[in-house]
Amino acid sequence: MARNMNNTFVVLFIALATLLHGSSAQTRHVVGDSIGWTIPSGGAATYTTWASNKTFTLGDTLVFNFANGQHDVAKVTKSEFDACNGGNAIFTITTNPAIVSLNETGDQYYICAFTGHCSAGQKLTIKVTQKTSSLAPNTSPSASPSPKTSPSASPSPKISPVAAPSPQHRSDISPSAAVPESAPAPAPFNGPVTYTVGDTIGWTIPTGGASAYVSWASAKNFKVGDILVFNYQINTHNVEEVTKEKYDSCSSVSPIAAYNSAPPVRVTLNKSGPHYFICGYTGHCSAGQKLAINVTGTTTTTATSPSSAATPSGSTTPSSPSPSGEGGVSSPPQNSGAASVGSLGLFAILLSVAAVAFY
């Protein structure tokens, strides 16, 4: 009887080790924890300090919490990170919460592409490493010898490790924030891209004249679904979409669409072909505050939160989103920490089987 019990517990141990090894959970890192993704009062050192206390491994996720229309998340190269340039981002996420799956090792760089935010400290760099196994190589279940039973002893219950219940995802993670291990990372080149017009100079009367915005646009590839962000000083400029004739003559009479509300103004490019934008304030367009772009093709993902993009419609004057203030950020998800996927439930099942074998 004692020998049978020993054999049973050996098998139970192997099954439990196998399940725990295969269900090691990823870690969800809430960037900045309680302060979220914002312009930190302590400058860039705030996010540097936050990242220094974390270990980032393949399969982990970053959760950026911010107020829609006031921030975004742009993954960039190191040179763009150092220069605080979000115009050529690998990808940009404009809606809260922004969830990024860490699917490659090495250094990764993230900034807020809104004018002045990165230079004020809203930037994050992390190092992603390979995941380490929780079991030593020689303790792999496939390498463990099968327990032998004496011919004279009554057969012990057969418990196959593969017959144990599959681990379940935690039920306390909301669907919008949960990122299964098998979920792909955000598609960097297929989704809509957010372009900050003029990058660091914003939407203003450029010192170099109209050529400044011509040069800026020439390096971009605009597609349907992409977003233009116009940053300017309130009550000193506006944004008007016009026809080519009115663009050439700098006429703001009966524009296709006019944006006169508080910046930033976000315009979704919802059709292909040429688009023309000017500032309707007297003399601004003729001084060079005008932009012409060509939109081609379509993006795979064109869904954009209504609160984060203003789409022109006819000759109406859309209202851009009113800043809700940093206090409008929704409560962040759970703090960083690996969630053990169903470990307690599995352990309880195995103990139940052991008890049956014992009696």
UniProtKB/TrEMBL annotation:
Main location: membrane
Extent of the signal sequence: 1-25
Subcellular localization, as worded in the UniProt entry: Endomembrane system
Bias-annotated ranges (Low complexity): 134-167, 301-333
Pfam families the record matches: Cu_bind_like (PF02298)
Record region (Disordered): 134-185, 301-336
Keyword NAD: no
Gene Ontology annotations for the cellular component aspect, listed alphabetically: endomembrane system; plasma membrane
Function of the protein: May act as a carbohydrate transporter.
Name the record gives this protein: Putative cupredoxin
Organism encoding this protein: Lupinus albus (White lupine)
